[in-house]
Amino acid sequence: MQKALQVDVEEAGYEFGKLILRNVHLTLEKGELLLLLGPTGSGKSTFILMITGVLNNLLYGYVKGTVRLFDINPLEPEGFRQVPRYIGVVLQSHELQIAMQTPLDEVLFTLENLGVENAFEKAKRVLDKYGLLDKAEVDVETLSGGEKKRLCLASSIVHEPELFILDEPTANLDPWGEREILNYVLELRRRGKTVIITEHKPRYFLKIADKIAVIENHTLRLGLKNSKDFIYSATVSLKKRREKERREIVRLEKVKFRYCSECSLVLRDTSLQVFNGENVAIIGPNGSGKTTLGKIISGLLKPIDGEVRIAGAVPWQLKPRELLKKVIYIPQEPNYFFVRNTVEEELKLAAEYGSLKLEDVVKNLESWILDKMNESPYRLSYGQKKWLTYIIARIYGSKVVVFDEPTAGLDFQLVKKFFTWLKEEGRTGVTSILLTHDVRVLENAADRVFIIENGEVKEVSVREGIEILRKPVEEWFYENQS
Amino acid sequence: MKIKANPSILFLYGLTLTILAFTLRKLNPLAFSSLLNLSIGLVLGFRKYRFLIAAFLLSLVGVAVNALIFAGGEPVYHIGCLVIRSGAITGFIEVSLRLALMFSATLIFSSLTNPRDLLRSLESELGLPKQVSFTVSLSLRLLKIFETDIREIQAVRKSRGLRTTPITPSDWDSFLSPLLSLGLERGRWIGIATELRGFSLRKVKKTCLKLGFVDFLLLTLMLIQVLASLLF
Amino acid sequence: MKFNYTTVDLAILAVVAALFGAVFAFAWTPYYAIKAIGGKPAAVLLTYGIWYMAAPLTATLLKKPGSAVLGETLAGLVESLIPQIGGSSSLIYAFFQGLFSEAVYALGKYRSFGSLQAVLAGAVPAIPSILLDIFIWKSIYPLEVFTILTVLAMASGAIYGFIAYKIAERTR
Fold first, then answer.
1. Do A218 and A333 belong together in one domain?
2. How many whole angstroms separate alpha carbon B24 and alpha carbon C101?
């Protein structure tokens, strides 16, 4: 029987002399699901680019060896041109994938490229299946995050390929979105499709994979020594609230917010109270208003009604220096955070405001940062960028730090490190507000949990919060036992 | 009543008007083209582009001020201590007519079509290469994402105590770097994803250029104005 | 020297065009703000170069023949498709500005895409840019004013051409 994928590669990379992968041997039968694991930067994406022929045909890289995809050779130009007929791709973010302006155009794009008959009807059918038919001709940017992801799923499947490649598909998704991906993958399996999933958050996929491979030390290894290598779910350590020295540090009362006069209310009647030194998680699905709430607490947005007090002051009435002393907002996307050309200059700027001397700051920094002092922050890896934003925030010395999805995109090692770091910060009296949909934050760091639902904020126990976040996927597994 | 016009023709018309705004030498054909198209543009775009029309009128005030300061000629009027020279009046009229001609091109085009339809029309009717239409279409898509990026960056700059509007070159440097960094990552992957979706195989079926009454009207107007610019 | 543009190159062209499309629309604010405080010469010096930046930036990123003129023209096209007062004039300005920038790289036989080329490619578009301005504004401004503006615009272009080089190298 024809195999879906046969890889026998000695060496591959983007530039001669700098190999990324070596000794990669893999066979995938039709209908199998391969889960590819490995830390960020290990070469998972390079593997994908290699087997699809992109590495050597499009990116001027090189591959020494053979790859067979069904009955074509993607390493050869002729074979490479035919690859689109065989594969459907879903990348980690819609921003990296959606090229057209409307959902209809996006779904039609692949069909038109491949010269498929009845393209229009097929496009409409798949949009309908993914609940996007009534938004077929609207601007893609007006869609919600979940709708954009569904659009990516729709356009990956519309031309009915045989092999599906999902590159970190759950990367920016909340538990409800992860459920959709699981449904999508299940559907593919039912149809006998071959699937390759790369992940560094493989919690759920481990249960449904036929083959598991790990990319480590530039090579691919089948099977897992120890599944605990990649799953991080330490035991829940529910903390008791510290009863001594409770001082209110954040107060919101009946806050209302909307982005424009014609827009709907994002937050209505929101009230909460946070005490110093606490690690407070604010949870809710993507689009529920977590970021908006975080920005209001940080003084970056002004509510249309209601009261906000940070350490007794009204944030938007303060001058930047004073505001920074009280609160700082760390965006989910670390690239937004940098304002200087080198790591050193970033630290210097923060040290000026925090009235610290740079030498004192540098003494306590880890070696990898010291190595990169003269580099541009934009050249760091994603995890390093995120970690740098945390360090900069610490140097500013704000009493309240608002983290927007702090664990998104981080490998489990960094996630572990982050939780340790949070505990230390809490001990020095820093209050951390964590906007998140990652259950691990609740399992390992949160003292208290609030949930945003329909624009209102409600406190729940940490245990309840964990249940809320685990429920969508656990239910899914229960419903799909086979 | 919805006016249907071919987007490619509209685009060509708008481009012709803009070129004429630069090349017309004599006042009569300039006034003719400018006032004719401005009237058409205002009728078509008055409701939708009120804000833009107001901005345009404001820019004319700027022209008037510059004309008063810089233009030469014999003094014609005195208002208090303000001297209005003949050159200021003719200069103001001429420059305003040119700017109005360019502005009317926008009004006419934007009121009757949009970039998406234009690209489809150019690709299938005029045989615009797929590389060009893809690139332009993608940039229109990315434009909105960049606008969001700019807002986020401004928020962070504000919270870190920096200017939210870049003034000096070094401000621009720190402002553009994150935008470019994010943009390049997106570009690289979108390029890869597009290739994997069969872009090199794309062959758009060419359809015949369908022209309606309005298109012929526009083409005639275009011809008249070009001839007028050459003859008068 | 490769001339063929891959899909990734096209996507990067689109990124630069969109980036400047968004930036140009936004750059009028500092232009008017500086003009109000420091007068037109300061405004020209501090902002005009931004409109010439797309060419050296694209050329430094792609390092292929045609990238300067394509990058600048596409940015101008995107700007002209957004409803604004100038209409298609952005496209016309951008095309000629791009041509002059491209000439800088062509004269060097496309052997180098370094900081010197970027500075020149940023400065040189001032010439067609102000020339086109003359067609519109000549009945108001005397020739001396245009000459001064050209010099200021070239200086601005040179500064921002250098910045274009820096940010391209920093983020590749």
1. no
2. 27
Give A255's pLDDT tier (boundaries 50, 70, 90).
very high
| Per-residue confidence (pLDDT) for residue C1, from 0 to 100 | 44
Task: Specify whether the CB–CB gap between A202 and A195 falls below 8 A.
Answer: no
Q: Which residue out of B119, B143, B156 would a mutagenesis test of the A interface target, given it has the greatest number of A Cβ atoms within 10 Å? A: B156
The answer to which of B32-41, B162-171, C55-64 has the lowest mean pLDDT is B162-171
With 50 as the cut, is the pLDDT of residue B100 above it?
yes
Q: What is the 3-state secondary structure (H, E, C) of A398-437?
A: CCEEEEECCCCCCCHHHHHHHHHHHHHHHHCCCEEEEEEC
Give dist(CA A383, CA A298) in Å, integer: 24
How far, rounded to the nearest angstrom, does the alpha carbon of residue A305 sit from its chain's CA centroid?
A: 32
> A236-240, A391-395, A464-468, C93-97: lowest mean pLDDT where?
A236-240
Q: Hey, how many other C-beta atoms are within 10 angstroms of the C-beta on A416?
A: 15
Among A172, A195, A229, the domain boundary falls at A229
B57 interfaces chain C, CB cutoff of 8 Å: no
Indicate if A161 and A33 belong to the same structural domain.
yes
Domain membership flag for residue C29 = yes
Q: Residue type at A361?
A: V
Is residue B106 exposed (0-12), middle (13-18) or buried (19+ Cβ within 10 Å)? buried
Label residue C93 by pLDDT band (50, 70, 90): very high
pLDDT of residue A369: 85
- The pTM assigned to this predicted structure is 0.91
Interface contact flag, B152 A98, Cβ < 8 Å = no
Please give the pLDDT value at position C82. Answer: 82
pLDDT tens digits, C45-63: 999 999 999 999 999 999 9
Residue A223 sits in which domain range? 3-229
Contact residues, B window 93-132, toward A, CB-based 8 Å cutoff: 116
Whether residue A242 is predicted with pLDDT greater than 60 in this model: the reply is no
Counted domains in chain A = 2
Does residue C1 belong to any structural domain of this protein?
no
pLDDT at A17 over 60: yes
Q: What is the pLDDT of residues A356-385, one digit of tens each?
A: 777 877 887 888 888 888 989 998 989 999
Range of C156's domain? 7-171
Residues A123, A151, single domain; the answer is yes
Q: What residues pair up with A250 in beta bridges, in sequence order?
A: A274, A310
Contact A50, A63 (CB under 8 A): yes
Strand partners of residue B155: none
Q: Which residues of A258-290 are buried (b: 16+ CB within 10 A; e: fewer)?
A: beeeeeeebbbebebebbbbbbbbbbbbbebbb
- pLDDT at residue number B76: 82
Half-sphere exposure of residue A48: CA atoms within 13 angstroms, side-chain side: 28
Q: In the structure encoding, which two tokens stand for residue A322, read together?
A: 């004073």
Residue A482 has a pLDDT of 60
Q: What is the CATH number of the domain that holds C153?
A: 1.10.1760
List, edge to edge, every strand of the sheet that includes A279-283: A327-330, A400-404, A431-436, A279-283, A448-453, A456-460
Chain A: partners with 3+ C-beta pairs within 8 Å? B, C
Asked if residue A178 and residue A86 are part of one domain, the reply reads: yes
Question: In chain B, whose CA is at the least distance from the CA of C160?
Answer: B169
ipTM for this model: 0.90
- Cβ separation of A378 and C170 shorter than 8 Å? yes
Backbone φ and ψ for C33, nearest 5 degrees, come out as -65, -45
Rounded CA separation C164/C159 (Å): 9
A336, B185: Cβ pair inside 8 Å? Answer: no
